[in-house]
Write a structure and sequence with these properties.
heterodimer; A: about 280 residues; alpha+beta; BirA Bifunctional Protein, domain 2; Methane Monooxygenase Hydroxylase, Chain G, domain 1; nine-stranded mixed beta sheet; 8 helices; 9 strands; about 45% helix; globular; B: about 750 residues; Alpha-Beta Plaits; 5 domains; 18 strands
Chain lengths: ~280, ~750
Amino acid sequence: MILTLHDYWSERGCVILQPYDMEMGAGTFHPATTLRALGPDSWNAAFVQPCRRPTDGRYGENPNRLQHYYQYQVILKPSPADLQDLYLGSLAAIGVDMAKHDIRFVEDDWESPTLGAWGLGWEVWCDGMEVTQFTYFQQMGGYDMKPVAGELTYGLERLAMYIQDVDNVYDLRFNDAGVSYGDVFLENEKQMSTWNFEVADTETLFDAFRKAAAECERCLEAKLPIPAYEQAIKASHTFNLLQARGVISVAERQAYMGRVRDLAKGACGAWMEKNGWAA
Amino acid sequence: MTDFLLELRSEEIPARMQAGARENLAKLFAAELAKAGLSAGEIVTYAGPRRLALIAKGLPSATEAVSEEVKGPRASAPPQALEGFLRKTGLTREQLTERDGVLFAITERLGRATAEVLAEAIPAIVRAFPWPKSMRWGAESASTESMRWVRPLHAIVALFGGDVVPFEIAGITSGNVTRGHRFHAPAEIVLTGADTYVEQLRAAKVLVDQDERAAIIRARAAALAAEAGLELVEDEGLVAENAGLTEWPVPLLGRFDEAYLDVPPEVIQLTARVNQKYFVCRSADGKLANAFVCTANIEASDGGAKIVEGNGKVLAARLSDARFFYETDLKTKLDDLRPKLEKIVFHEKLGTVADKVERVAKLARWLVEEGIVTESPSRRREGLGEGRAPSDVASGTVPPPSQFQVNDAPHRSGHAGGMTDLKLASGGGELADLAERAAYLAKADLVTGMVGEFPELQGLMGGYYAAAQGEDPRVAEAVRDHYKPVGQGDDVPTAPVTVAVALAERLHTLAAFFEAGIEPTGSKDPFALRRAALGTLQLILTNGLRFRLRRVFEIVLANNRYGQTYLTEEPTLGKLLDFFADRLKVQQREAGVRHDLIDAVFALGGEDDLVRLLARVRALQAFVTTDDGTNLLAGYKRAANILKKEGVEGDQGWNAPTYTPEPAEADLIAALDAAEPKAAEAVQAEDFEAAMAALASLRAPIDRFFDDVTVNDADPAKRAARLALLARVRAAVHMVADFSRIEG
């Protein structure tokens, strides 16, 4: 399925990238999306990104919620006029029969408070299941998009469940040799859920957050937006872990999110500056 | 006369914005026509996910010719004046018209073709269209000035009769071509005109009329449920939303695993509705059935089998998640969630939710111990008009607030330290314990997983969890229902424990915010204090709760003492009581009570036992419509007018006349002597009907007095005595209400 999507989007002018080697909550955090979405240059890319969402962990007991899963991410700037058709074409390419399945574009305004970003679009439903997040970015890092980029984020496990017609993500066939998704990931989900929710040392995490934030600022001072952005990603994920541990109060939550947002905005601003783009 | 068709075809418009968009389109279009002096016979609008359309019927082909006249100088005016006018109008002397010695510039503006007007109007409407949220897109968006629409706009059809109205907006040229259903009829369709629009699209599997789509969903969903031997749980909000998500709605019925019916039915319904936009069904026994109805947007080649299967799986996953939250929540006692409540700020000036819970719990206990909330509130209602007013219990002297503040004994019916000298109607006992316990647990569910996921389940989940951990059913019920009533028309709790908690929370909230200086102003009421006051009124009136509002607020304010912005009690108290008086007036007016009667009772002042106050209003309302009432009112007004004219205010004191009164005068004195004590006694007993009946006995003597006796007698002693008599009449009537406020 990934190979089909690679072929499909590659034929349509996208560069095919590899996953970013850092823990992040969504493919949107990949610098190929966040940083490359800024500025006037055309940019078309597609890649797989593993995502970690500690609070979504269910100890392997939920048929489709996971704290670690894969997104397929496509970013097209400027957004092409036929983006919806291109997207539906990609669904057909991976085997979704639109004469039998009900595909719907349901309002979902996307906002990432930690990236200072927002956009309008939909969650795409296939028979009531959200399979893709479809967004026209309007702002990133607090900057207006000039021009607007279109972002498609496919939930790979969910799509695979459709295509393979299985009810439980752990029953997905990983290959034709009898290896299931559960064989590969079930134990990982159990252990990581336990760690995320119960075990992770909060002092270490608080410390990591502070260090990432400080390092980000140092990089900004050194006019190095890419490493600064990496530290912002690190701070964001550490914050998510702290959330899962339930040690951040509602009042503090806003403050932490504001901190991450400032770091991300700082990195985006430095990136704009480095490239000589006006806000 | 010609019809105009406009279709704005875009990517999927959010369902919730479609109705507003139709309204705005019609309004803006009519306004643009009006500017050009045009009006349509009828304007119809349609909205769906992919198109917003308008049909204007009966437009003329051109606007009417207008002749415009500008008055100039007199023909005899000096040449400078003429030159100035010619410059201004850009005309020559020969082009001016002379009338009665004055020059006029007359410009004939020819009628404009309607199509031309439309070609300017539509782009103006599209550019200025007020979407709640709009966006930029595509290569054009390199400039932030590029056009905005709710989602990318793809094509515009504009047909006046059969002809395209030509214009261009941001690279989109108007035409006559549209497309049908995304999957069933994606090819281009050439539209022929407004009259065939709906049918041409129907043939392309698009129902443009949202009402038709809604009707199909409503009828088909109900029919599917009936075929399965079930009953659809109707939900008009869902009908509209699904109509906004589909161009060709096809309801389908599916099932989910019966095992999920362990999850509370409200949770299942909410998950199905909010996350999936499904209807749910009831079985014959009224219980939730393991069935749902989803609305597809296609006629699937397999009859919808795959769609139902897929939707069923998604719902199962959602329910599995809900069950995960439910079962996880059940593992923690509500008591143990307290540390989490300590982390939630209620309001920056007012501490945490845990602080609030503590205060409300104490207050709930106090309301019971004071006899304000009792085991059987209904007995209180019957008590009205039967002699001793139970409110006396709570209207005694104000105790030092510290008594309430520091008392933490579990059972306080004895009231060491003299909380009040009066014997309590109810000692509190078990009911007080239950009320305190329920209030203590009432907010714990705010930090459960389930309420985190579905905030609208607050209270409800707390009730389930309280029951599950073995709380008294009355406590669980109070935890569940204490948010009620949430508005006019909502159920008002009557179970005593629930009433105590619901009342305590509202009294506390109102007092706390007023004390912090946060009051509703104009349309701004961010903490819903008006709703809290209305809820308090509903609780008091429905349950016949007897107490002096002023005194209770004194206690509540003393108990709150948040300390940070401590105001002196008096202004806060005054504001609170005024605020309640206003809310009560609004509430009674909405309930259809004559506002002049409410004013007549309020004008007496000092009444803050709301049950008694309204009993008075009700008795008055019944009385003023009777003959006795009308006549007494007339007599009263006559007396009051004379007193007003003579500048006699208030009670004059009464002495028997020193002269021999005229018979009618003597009769009135005798009638007053008889009626006053009766009325006073009846008022004391809160039997306002009887009080009014006693006053009604004054009617005939007053009439006769005015017929036979001259008030304005030459003898100053007689005049003074008669005015004093009239003042006595006025005072007697005021025992019940200030009749001068009554209209008629």
